[in-house]
Backbone:
């Protein structure tokens, strides 16, 4: 398993959060086991919250709503992920963010949590000159592809157990986009998949991480604002 890069700040504003960045590919099953262990430790009060940024070797993962008919021609291992959503692809050049946060202390609002992740990714993409947005009825982060059509540039899938989150989001920096052809990504067949590189933006994992982390206070602030709003009701 890849070694942990530990040169990141452990505190962002007043929010205590451990950060990990991986410089090598992490096998998906290893990451899943680590997430489950950390989830249990946070729920038991034995560990703090964690944001984990990494990439995987090529793999297809199945969410709880996955339809086997959407496996077109999978050339890689297919793993049951336990998160929400359908089939997705992970591989080199796609930056993944796994979030293990205690929603018991952050408002117990899963919809707000997902909305805040979407906003965080959209804002970070804007830092690289890419306009992106949410689409009603379509899961993920969307942008305009080089052909002028809408295409997915980021995916979101989460799981919440004992009010502690797992999984999170992925953003296509420069993956092999042909690998998405083995599945119907997230069950959406009528739109394509794109990447920052395809849009002419050469962004390294390190550059992406730095911009994402710089906006983390806004993400955590959105969760806190929702919690306070719920408390006033």
Residues:
């Amino acid at each position: 398993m890849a070694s942990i890069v530990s040169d990141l700040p452990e505190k962002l504003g007043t929010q205590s959060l451990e950060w990990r960045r991986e410089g090598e590919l992490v096998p998906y099953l290893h990451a899943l086991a680590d997430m489950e262990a950390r989830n249990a430790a946070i729920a038991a009060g034995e560990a703090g919250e964690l944001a984990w940024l990494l990439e995987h070797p090529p793999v297809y993962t199945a969410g709880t709503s996955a339809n086997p008919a959407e496996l077109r021609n999978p050339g890689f291992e297919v793993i049951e992920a336990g998160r929400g959503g359908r089939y997705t692809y992970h591989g080199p050049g796609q930056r993944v963010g796994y979030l293990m946060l205690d929603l018991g202390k952050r408002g117990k609002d899963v919809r707000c949590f997902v909305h805040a992740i979407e906003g965080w990714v959209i804002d970070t993409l804007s830092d690289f000159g890419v306009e992106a947005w949410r689409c009603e009825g379509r899961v993920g982060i969307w942008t305009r592809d080089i052909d002028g059509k809408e295409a997915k540039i980021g995916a979101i899938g989460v799981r919440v157990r004992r009010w502690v989150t797992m999984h999170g989001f992925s953003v296509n920096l420069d993956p092999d986009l042909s690998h998405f052809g083995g599945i119907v990504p997230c069950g959406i067949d009528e739109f394509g998949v794109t990447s920052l590189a395809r849009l002419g933006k050469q962004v390294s994992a390190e550059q992406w991480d730095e911009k994402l982390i710089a906006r983390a206070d806004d993400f955590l602030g959105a969760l806190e604002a929702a919690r306070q709003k719920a408390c006033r009701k």
Summary: The chain has a mean pLDDT of 89. The two ends are 46 Å apart (CA to CA). The longest strand covers residues 150-161.
